[in-house]
Amino acid sequence: MRIGAGIGLVAIGAIIAFAVRDTSGWLNLTALGIIIMLAGVAGIWVSYRLANPRKRGEFNVIDPEVEKQYTTDPPEQVAERPIDVTPSHLREERRD
Does the global pTM surpass 0.90? Predict the structure, then answer.
């Protein structure tokens, strides 16, 4: 059963349960409509679970072999001298 069929059963069950008024003694239409609605909800739930199974366990977004191609080692020395990150208007004049 697909989601559309489940929605259809819920709609038909609601019509039978709430819109149809009949006084037959051997069949309770309200109960029948609610049972059909529950069957529709169960069908929707089952079709959702079959369409979206939970993935259990570990999964990698990137293959580890491919990821190795993009890893780099950090450089041993970044610069010859320390880099001054002070804004230029706050720096003192340096005479080297």
Answer: no
